[in-house]
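A quick aside before the break. I want you to see a complete sequence-to-structure record at least once, exactly as it would be stored in a machine-readable document. Don't worry about memorizing anything.
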Amino acid sequence: MSHRGSLLFTPSGVSAIAATTPAESTPAMLAPLFAEPEGAVELALLGMGADIAAAPAALRDALRAHGLRFEAMATGAAARTYNVMVDEDRRVAAVLLAVP
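That is the input. The structure line, written in tokens, reads:
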């Protein structure tokens, strides 16, 4: 896959998202994640860019409202963690903001 933008990985597939910074991250961009069947995702990894950054409060609140645990980290770490968890057959999703 050749793509230079930000991506959302869910058990159902990969979606492009418009956000390129944590501040641009909104609950609306997580619609494909929230559409997953209940129990399909146990943890959402939030890759917030080149450096670790907190996810915006609205994003955290939306994830909690959908009963999802989440972990914010740098995008590189989130991608590596996602790959390990998928290899372990864990129920995981990832938001990976593009790193310039």
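Two observations worth writing down. The first helix runs from residue 31 to 34. The beta strands are 6-10, 13-17, 43-47, 69-73, 92-96. We'll return to this after the break.
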